[in-house]
Input
Amino acid sequence: MKCVHLQVVSDEVVERVDAARNRALLLNSAAALIAERGVDCVSIDAVAAKAGVGKGTVFRRFGSRSGLMHALLNRFEEELQEGFLFGPAPLGPGAPPSERIVAFGVARLEFIRDHGDILREAESSVGTRYASSYSVYVMHVAMLLRQAQVHGDYRLLADSLLASLDASLVLYQKRDLQIPLIRIVENWRTFVLHLTSE
Output
């Protein structure tokens, strides 16, 4: 006779599953509201109402509106990081370093096109602007500059390059100066190829 083992699911496991489900629900609700109204018109109250939960649930999961925006941004940034760490060339491994830097900038500019308002809000706090995702980007670009044998301080050069990919700057160029994204992309390509060919 075959023995059947029953696994007892603990309250803690159920709570973790509920927490993960609520987190995903809140992030999806926030993303939908931002797409409908724009990031500046999205409040904690609106996200909670759309998700069908109490306002306290949002605060427990994210701490504040800023925490919610950072969590949403992290979800989007994971896809970009996955692309340049493990994706196909030229963004991912396998292409010459200068081509990878160009591809990284193009991907970042497209990311700003799609999620720029959330990025702008996240970058408005200096304490969070240079947090984990920026550190990953700077290390990635510095590594590629080293591989391209560019002369200079790789960390400072990477900071200088990434400054031109600042969300507030790119949004200003696109919206206020009416510069098309394709022109910003071409400028990035010229900038990188000039730097890496010296």
Observations:
- Residues 65-197 form a domain with the Tetracycline Repressor; domain 2 fold (CATH 1.10.357.10).
- The chain has two domains: 1-63, 65-197.
- The chain has a mean pLDDT of 86.
